[in-house]
Amino acid sequence: MKFYIFFPLVYIVMGSCIWAQQAPVTTRGDQEFLPVVRGLVINAYTGAPVGDVRITIRELGIESYSNAEGQFTFKNIPVRPLTLILEHGDYITGEETFDIPDGTLLLSIRPNSLDLDEVVVIGKRDLKTPSSATMINRKAIEHLQATNLREVLQLVPGNLIENPTFTNTNQANIRQYKADNLGSLGTAVIINGATISNNANLQAINTTRAGSGAAFSTSSGGGVDLRTISADNVERVEVIRGIPSVEYGDLNAGAILVQTKARKEPLTLKARFNPTLTQFWAGKGFNTDNDGSSLYVDLDYTKNNDSETNKYQNYTRVSGTAQYTRHFGKEKNWRTNTTLAYTYGKDSYDMDPDFVVDSVKTVSREHFIRFSSNGNITLDRKFSQQIKYTASLNYGDQKGYQQQYYTADITAESYALTNSTHEVPYLPSSYLSKMRVNGKPLSANFRISDHFNWYTGDYTHNILAGAAWKMDVNLGEGKTFNRPPRNTSAHAYRTRRYNDIPALHQFGLYVQDQFSGFIGKTAISLQAGLRYDLMQPFDKSYDLKALSPRLYASVKTPFNLTLRSGYGVTAKSPTLLYLYPENAYFDFYSLNHYAQRPEERMALITTRVFDSGNHDLKLSKTAKYEAGMDYNWGENGEKILSVTGYYEKTRNGYDMSTTLNSVKFAQYPVYAIESQPEGQQPVLSDEVSSMTRFVSYFAPSNNIRRVNKGVELNADFGKVDVINTSFNITGAYTSTKSVTNDYYILQQNIAGRATTRVGVFAPGRGSVEERFVTTIRGIYHIPKLSFIVTLSAQTIWMDKNRYTGYQSLPVGYIPYNESGETPEIVFFSESERQGINKYDDPDIYLNINEATYITEKWQPLWLFNLKLTKEFRNGLNFSFFANNFINYRPLKSSTRYPTVYYKRNISFFFGSELSIRL
Q1: How deeply is 754 buried, as exposed, middle or buried, from its count of CB atoms within 10 A (0-12, 13-18, 19+)?
Q2: How far apart are CA 762 and CA 804, in angstroms?
Q3: Distance from C-alpha of 152 to C-alpha of 139, rounded to nearest angstrom
Q4: Cβ(544)–Cβ(578) under 8 Å?
C-alpha cells in the first residue's frame, strides 16, 4: 500500500476533478486540527478510483467509506502521525503511518488478483486490533474452497486441516485441543455486526438423563452450528483469538466476525463437487442509484452424504441473503447496512430399506430467518464523533424427530407430572417409539457505541463507550411423544412446553480508552477498558453479573519490532438449557400384577418429581493472559514473524452433571394383593409398606475448570521471485486441561449385598491434552496464467493425552437413608481412607483400569494437501483440492491399549469447483 500527499495540480495530471482549497488549520487547546480531510482511493495498477473501501484511522477509531468516485472525507482530524487502514474484499489490506500537512490524500490500493504480482490466499494478522486476531479475506476463502464457516477456521494458527464434512454439528474451536460444547458456547459468532445466538436452543431429549444430547443432530448447550453458514457470500472473516475489545460480550473463548458481500458485482455462478457433496451457489450485486447504494443477493444449495456408499445419512442446506447498503444525509454521513437472510438445514438418518431391524430414524430440521441492520453516523461533535449501532432479530423453527422400534419385557408406563400414584396400562411387548422436539428460538439484540477522541499533549485517547441489550426466548411447543413413549425403567421421559420458559435478558455497559502516541521514534499503544454485564435481572432467583476489565499494551520500536501483552476477563451467560432445565421424573412400581387375562391385570406406578434447577449457578468467566512479538522485514515490511504465548483459565464452565444436590432418596408405597377374584382386578391389602430408592440425575452445574495455554507462530517469508513461490509457516503448541469442580458420586450395586452407602470421590477428575502442529504452505503463483497452486505440509510433532485425578479411594460416602432424608456426605479421615480396599469395601471402592494412568502418545504425523485455482479471461474459474493426496494413513497401535490399532490421518479426499462471472 502506498500513500501519497498531493496538491491540486496532481488532479489535473490524473484527469480528476480539482477540489476546493482545504479549510485552514484550527486550534483547540494545544492541539491543531484539520476541519476537513479529503482523499481519493485509486487502483495501484490502473489508477482508476475504487469505491466502497473502508478507511479506518486506527488511533481515532473512526472510519469512512469511499464513494463510487473513490472519494472519502474525514472531519476534525488532529495534525499528528496517524495510521490509515484500507480494507476492500477485492484488494489487499494495508497500513502506513503518516503526517497530513494540508489535509489532502491520495491512497493507492493493490488488487488481490491472480493476474497480478501479489495475491493473498492465507490468513493475516488483523491490523485494526492490538490483540491476537487473524484476518481471512475473500480470495483466501475462495482458494480454500470452503463450503461452510468451520472450514475457514483452518487458516487460524494451530487449527488442523480437515476434510469437508456435514455429518455432525460443526463447532468453533479457538485455542483449544478440540471442539466441545463449552469451548464453542464461549465463541461469539457475529455476522455483519449482529450476534448469532444459540442461547435459546432447547433441542434436547431429556436434560436430566442425557444432558444436552439427543439421538438427532443438535447443538443445544453449545455454540452455533457453523455448517449452517455458507462461506461463498463472505467478504472477510476476522477471528479474535486473544483479548477482545470491551464492545464484545457474552463470550469466553473468542469471537468470529463475519462480513458478507454488499456491493455491485457481476453475476457469479458456482458448482462444487466432491465424493460426498454437491453444491450450487449464485450471487449478484447491483447499484440501486447514484449515491453509492447497493444490493447484493445470493442463493446456496448444498447436499452432503455421510459417505460415498451411504445415502441414507445426509445433510441438506438451502440458504439465501439479501444485503442492502445505503448512505443518507446531505453529506452522506450516515451509512447503513441491512441484511435479510434465510437458512434451511436438514440432517437425517433414515432407514436402509434393505436392512430394517429396529426402524431407527432421526431427523433434525431447522429454518432460520435473520434480520439485522448496522450503521455508523458521523456527527463530528466533541464527545460524539461517530455513532455505531447494530440491531437484529433472529427467528428459528427447529424440529427434532427420533423413532425406534422396541421389543422388550412387558412393562407399564406412567404419564404423571406430579408426585402421585396412579393405575396405569401395560404396554405391548413391541412398539414403535416416536419423540418430537419442536423449538422456536427467538433472539433480539441492540448495541450502540459512541466514539470520540481527546488529547493530552502529543498523545491521543480514542474513547469508546456504549451499551448493549440481548434477549433470547423459545416459543416452541417443546417435547411431545406418540404414546407410548420409550420406556426407560425408573428414570422417565415426560413432555414439556418450551413457551412456558422465561426469556433470557442481558444488559451490558462498556467504556474503553485506547491511548496512543510516540516516545521518540517508538510508538506506544495502551487499550484499557471495562465492561459490566447483568444477566437475567428479571429473575430474582439468579444472581448473574460480571465486571470484566481488559487491558492491552503494545510498543513498536523503530527497528520494526513490536512487543505486546495483555490481560482480560470475559464472561459467558448460561443458556436457557442451563437456566431452566426440565424436572427429573422417576417411576416406581407400587404394584406390578400381570395376569394372562387382561381384566385381571393391575399396575400401580408412583411418580416422584425433582426440580433439577440450580439457582446457585454462576457465570462462566475466563481470565486471559497473552504476550507476543511481531517482527517485520523486507523492502516494504511485507515479511513478518509473529509469536504469541497465552494462558487462559476458565472457571465455572457449564455442564450437565450429577452433583450432591441431584442425588436423592425417593420413597414410594408398595401395595400387596389380598385376593384375586376371577375375571376381576386383584383386591389390595390394607397393609402398605414403604421402599426407598437412591436416585440421581443430571443438573446444570459449574462443573468444569479449564486451562488452555500455548504458543502460536505465524511466519510469512514473502515471495521468492526466482521461483514465483511464497512461503508461510503457521503453528501452535496447544495444551488443554479440563477437570471437574464437583465430587464424583457413584452408586455401585453389589450382588447379594444390600446397598448401605454410596461412594463419593474427590473433585479434579479430567484430562490433559497436548499437541504441537505446524503447517508449511508453499504458494506457487504465475500471474501471466492467472494460476496459483498451494502445497501444504502439516506436521503433528506431538500429540498426547492423559487422565488426571482418577482415584480408587473415595473421600467419603453417602449413607443409605431409608427415611428419605436429604443426602449428606460423611467424610473419611486420611487413615480411614487409606484403610479402604476392594475386598472389604466393594460398594465404595472404584476399580480403575491400570491403562487409565498411561499417557497416550503418538509419533509425528505428516499430512500433504494440494489446492489450485485457475482463472480464465472469459470469467471462467476452476479450482481443485486434494487432501492427503499421497494417502498416508499409517496403522499405529495405541500406547494406552497396545492391542488396539488406529488408522491415523484423515482419508484421501478431493473435490473441484467451477465458477463463472457473467
Answers
A1: exposed
A2: 11
A3: 12
A4: no
Three cell numbers, residue 845 = 471402592
pLDDT recorded at residue 253: 94
Distance between first and last Cα of the chain = 30
- pLDDT tens-place string over residues 831-885: 999 999 999 999 999 999 999 999 999 999 999 999 999 999 888 999 999 999 9
Question: CA–CA separation, 856 vs 769, rounded Å?
Answer: 9
For 243-309, strand residue ranges (E) read 254-260, 265-274, 277-287, 294-307
Nearest to 319 by CA among 226, 431, 187, 415: 226
Q: Whole-angstrom Cα distance, residue 189 to residue 173?
A: 12
Instruction: Decide: residue 721, CB within 10 A, 0-12 exposed, 13-18 middle, 19+ buried.
Output: exposed
Residue among 184, 166, 167, 163 nearest 175 (CA): 184
Report pLDDT for 339: 97
Q: What does the alpha-carbon distance between residue 820 and residue 816 come to, in Å, rounded to a whole number?
A: 9
pLDDT above 50: residue 215:
yes
Q: What integer pLDDT is reported at residue 16 of this predicted model?
A: 37
Write the pLDDT tens digit of every residue in 711-748: 999 999 988 988 999 999 999 999 999 999 999 999 99
Full set of structural domains in the chain with CATH: 2-111 (2.60.40.1120), 181-917 (2.40.170.20)
Q: Which residues contact 175 (CB under 8 A, 6 or more apart)?
A: 158, 241, 253, 254, 646, 648, 708, 710, 734
d(CA 166, CA 884): 19
Q: What is the DSSP string of 452-499?
A: EEEEETTEEEEEEEEEEEEEEEE-S-EEEEESS----TTEE---B-GG
Those residues whose C-beta lies under 8 Å from the C-beta of residue 90, and which sit 6 or more positions away, are: 111, 112, 113, 138
User: Distance of alpha carbon 605 from its chain centroid, rounded?
Assistant: 44
Over residues 28-40, the pLDDT tens digits come to 767 788 888 888 9
The Cα 85–Cα 55 span in angstroms is 6
404 has pLDDT over 90: no
Rounded to an integer, the average pLDDT of 53-65 is 89
Alpha helices in 529-666 (DSSP H): 576-579
